[in-house]
Structures are given as C-alpha cells and as structure tokens.
Design goal:
mainly alpha, globular
Length: 153
C-alpha cells in the first residue's frame, strides 16, 4: 500500500495576528524606503542604508511569521528566523545573503565594524531586502490579505 502525503497544514490567521503582521510589514516597507533614500543621499554613510535594508528584511520575515499565528523571536539572525517561517513561504534569498544581512545588524551600527560597509554592500543589501519584502507582500496576497493599502511607516 502506498503512502499518502498530506499538504503542509496552513493556519488561518487570527484577526489580531493579521493586524500585527500588517504593522510589521508597513514598518518593513518604511525601513526599505529609508535604506533607498539614504543610499541616494551622498551625505549619508553607506552603513546607514545597509542597516535599514537589514531591518526591512528582518521585519518582512517577522511579518510572515506573525501572519501564521506564530510568536517571533527578538533576534536579528535572519537565517534563524527563516527556520520559523511557515511551510508555504520560502525566503527568496540564499543562506549567504541572509548571513550577510544579519551581520549588518551589528556591523553597520558600531564604529569598529561600520567602516567596512561600502556602496556595493549597501546596494546588495537593498536588493536582497527588496526581494524579501516583495515575496512577503505576495505571501500576504496569497493568504487573502490585501496589500494595496500597505504604506511605509
């Protein structure tokens, strides 16, 4: 007799989970907008742009976790957070990209590390964060949560 595979169990989000997840997604969009604005402002160090890109990716991942009625850990390790994602969401970044972004949560904030963030690092960070945020928005839409009204906060 053959074995049957059941599809991953998908939780229906509770109303309070949806509201919290949307708030995190709005903040992710706000952090990404800040990263882009800082990247385009020659008076702002690249480390600030890279830091806000990391924050955007982190908050987008946490929004997806919250939408699945799961608690989020207050950590900056994107690889660790990605292990808490629901089965129907695959983070669109490699482990190396997640590790690079995670490192920026520290490297971009402290003088002994922040001077290593250059224009290329900032640009790659923004690109990765944009991909993650776009995937999170698409995930919300697939789950029936409209994203048209989500604005950067």
């Amino acid at each position: 007799m053959g074995s049957r595979c059941m599809p991953p169990r998908r939780r229906s989000p509770r109303r309070e989970s949806v509201a919290a997840a949307i708030r995190w997604l709005e903040w992710a969009a706000g952090d990404l907008a800040t990263a882009v604005a800082y990247r385009n402002d020659p008076s702002v160090p690249f480390r600030n742009s890279a830091y806000f890109a990391q924050q955007a990716a982190e908050k987008a991942i946490k929004a997806v976790i919250l939408l699945d009625n799961r608690a989020i850990d207050r950590v900056h390790d994107l690889e660790a957070l990605s292990r808490d994602l629901p089965d129907d969401f695959a983070v669109p970044a490699t482990i190396d990209e997640l590790a690079r972004l995670s490192d920026l949560a520290i490297d971009a904030r402290y003088p002994d590390e922040g001077d290593t963030v250059d224009a290329d690092t900032a640009a790659r960070s923004i690109a990765t964060a944009t991909t993650i945020l776009d995937a999170a928005m698409a995930h919300f839409a697939i789950r029936g949560i409209p994203t048209d009204d989500i604005r950067p906060q």
